[in-house]
Amino acid sequence: MKAYFILATVIFTACTSPSRQPALKETPEEVIENSQPTTEPVLDYMPRNYTYDEIAKYAIATLMFQHHDNLTVKNEGGIYIVSYFKDSQQYHCKIKFSQDQIIWGVADGRWREHPMDEKLSYKEVGNKLLITQHFTDGSNSIKEFQE
After folding, report:
1. Is residue 106 within 8 Å of residue 120, measured between CB atoms?
2. How many domains is the chain built from?
3. pLDDT digits (tens, 9 = 90+) for 26-58
4. Is residue 37 part of a domain?
5. 143: Cβ–Cβ under 8 A, 6 or more apart, which residues?
6. Hey, how many other C-beta atoms are within 10 angstroms of the C-beta on 81?
7. What's phi and psi for 83, nearest 5 deg?
8. Most exposed residue of 59, 70, 116, 128, measured as fewest CB within 10 angstroms of its CB?
9. Which pTM was predicted?
10. Which long-range contacts (CB under 8 A, 24 or more apart) does 40-45 make?
């Protein structure tokens, strides 16, 4: 019983007595001094040999089975509108980019971002551009373009 009384007194005294330790403050010098450079690789998705206009054109050519020379592209603030004629009718698709991913849709329709929609990506290999369709069954189709 005496041990409980001593323990309670010590805890009570420790909680009520003012702290003698100074509060720790992190100064800008400490932040700089303690910061470590990242060792994770920085991935660069900016195309080197192709413009986003060209990649958008080749993506729609791949999807719509059109020849890329028959397509026109207009950049509207990062949304690329790709147009083509088929059977005397004009069609418009939209493209936007997220790193190496190509997100597309019919110009007046939804973006094809549903999990059941195929995914598109691009990759430059030397002076070639590879457009890959990733299907939900796990299969892929790769189309190669070279200017």
Report:
1. no
2. 1
3. 444 444 444 455 454 445 677 888 999 999 999
4. no
5. 58, 61, 62, 130, 131, 132, 133
6. 16
7. -120, 150
8. 116
9. 0.68
10. 43/99, 45/99, 45/100
